[in-house]
Amino acid sequence: MARIKAKEIILIAVLILLTKFQVKPLSKEITVGEKAPYSSVTEALENSNEGDTIVVKSGIYKENVVINKGVFLVGENQPVIDANYQGDVVRIEADKVMIKGFNIRKSGSDLLKEDSGIKVVNSSRVIIEGNKLEDVIIGIYLYSSPGNIIKNNTSYGRADFATQEANGNGIHLWKSPNNTIIENQITNHRDGIYVEFSPGNKITSNHCKGNVRYGLHYMYSNDNTFEGNIFERNGTGSALMYSKNIVLRNNTFKNNVGPNGFGMLLKSLNDSLAEENLISDNTVGIFMDDANRNVFTENVFSQNGWAIDLFSSSNNNAIYANDFLNNTFQVMTDTDRTTNKFFINSTGNFWSDYRGYNGYDLDGDGVGDIPYKPVKLLSYLMKRYPDLTVFLGSPGFRALEFAERVLPVLNPVELEDPYPLMNPIRVEKDSK
Predict the structure, then answer these.
(1) What is the residue range of 258's domain?
(2) CB 43 within 8 A of CB 30
(3) Would residue 18 be called left, alpha or beta, if left means φ above 0 and alpha means ψ between -120 and 50 degrees?
(4) How far is Cα 307 from Cα 109, in angstroms, rounded to an integer?
(5) Which of 102, 262, 320, 365 could serve as a FRET partner for 344 with CA atoms 20 to 30 Å apart?
(6) How far is CA 193 from the centre of its chain?
(7) Residue 114 belongs to a domain
(8) Cβ distance 78 to 101 under 8 Å?
(9) Is 190 inside a domain boundary?
(10) CATH no. for residue 410?
């Protein structure tokens, strides 16, 4: 009897454990296609379990897809999910989802509902990779969704046939920290990448081109890193605002022209680092308003209208070891006094026109013997009276430029680089 009771006790204990820790079924692969067990993605999702892989064959699937369990959705030969201009094309409401290899198109047009190609809501560890989004108002939207990966997608918006107000952003982050955004191509949206209330993201090697407002729009988000991205031919290359501790490294901001053609617009951006960036062929390279305690080093400012437009509201910035190459004007500011420095520890910047303004290096130490004053009277005039641009290169302007060179007293502000470099920083560094 004692043995029987012991066996019963063991059996009861095993039953309790099995009840408490239910054994999950093994994951399986489900196929969707014309001759497959399921003809729609939605039907396959309804018959799937956590951890299943759903393989979708090539074809056009006209449906709105909602993923509310952790599955892997894999497209074979780029199948199309077409929402027929109704709502979100794909909506993800679960952790550990992967969607890869699809053509996502024809989202709804309601910006109040934030209709998107792919929308992720309150979810983590989601991977969105290798998808092509077309004719969508918002490309990929992370809503309150941390710790996800968005990689190697392309998104083409509706800027060709919608106003700026009716067009959404390519990649949109709202209260979504610690995500990785890498190697995406974004065109024809309102903003290429929009980040708000989302700290700790890594945004790397993306290409934002031809977006109607900003290539990068960034607000109220600290401690983010932007590295190796290209922002070109947008209304404004980037607008970085109301944030701190940002790293901008090895990015390209080029060919952003027009009335608001800034490579980088910095508004209330503090305690950040911009290094090794190329800022080229913009109306204004960097526009700074209430931007404080930032460091700019080893950047190349090339062929901009104004390399830097520095408002008096910006203080204690360090601008050193940069190359200023063939800009129409190097620096513009609205004040005679400044706490900003164009040098650190006896290291200034390279100015391509330094020699033309009577600069020289008699002792051959690689540093100019007289300070360089980057703010010119002509830049004041051109900034205050833009219509004067038609006279650039005229005999009158050349005469004024010559007078300023021989009579530096005409320089309107006491802002200078006391250690101008005789050779470009990046050229020397790249040759080693």
Answers:
(1) 75-431
(2) no
(3) alpha
(4) 39
(5) 262
(6) 5
(7) yes
(8) yes
(9) yes
(10) 2.160.20
The count of other CB atoms within 10 Å of the CB of residue 60 is 10
Which structure tokens are listed for 193? 């990448």
Query: How many structural domains compose the chain?
Result: 1
Residue owning tokens 């944030």: 243
> What's the CA gap between 188 and 259, in Å, rounded?
19
45 in a structural domain:
no
Q: Which residues pair with 199 in a beta bridge?
A: none
SS3 425: helix
Q: Is 348 left (phi over 0), alpha (psi -120 to 50) or beta?
A: beta
pTM: 0.88
CB-hemisphere CA count at 13 Å for 208? Answer: 35
Q: What is the pLDDT along the chain (432 residues), one digit of tens a residue?
A: 445 566 666 666 655 554 555 545 578 999 999 999 999 999 999 999 999 999 999 999 999 999 999 999 999 999 999 999 999 999 999 999 999 999 999 999 999 999 999 999 999 999 999 999 999 999 999 999 999 999 999 999 998 766 666 789 999 999 999 999 999 999 999 999 999 999 999 999 999 999 999 999 999 999 999 999 999 999 999 999 999 999 999 999 999 986 788 999 999 999 999 999 999 999 999 999 999 999 999 999 999 999 999 998 999 999 999 999 999 899 988 877 889 999 999 999 999 999 887 899 999 999 999 999 898 766 666 655 555 555 555 665 565 555 555 555 445 566 899 999 999 997 555 544
Residue 53's closest CA among 95, 100, 89? 100
SS3 421: strand
Of 5, 70, 65, whose CA–CA distance to 32 is shortest?
A: 65
**Is residue 1 assigned to a domain?**
no
DSSP letter, residue 220: S
103 in Cβ contact with 134 (< 8 Å): yes
DSSP string, 259-316: TT-EEEEEEEEES-EEES-EEES-SEEEEEES-BS-EEES-EEES-SEEEEE-TT--S
Question: What is the C-alpha to C-alpha distance for residues 152 and 186, in angstroms, rounded to an integer?
Answer: 10
DSSP line for 116-170? EEEEEES--S-EEES-EEES-SEEEEEES--S-EEES-EEE-STTTS-GGG---S
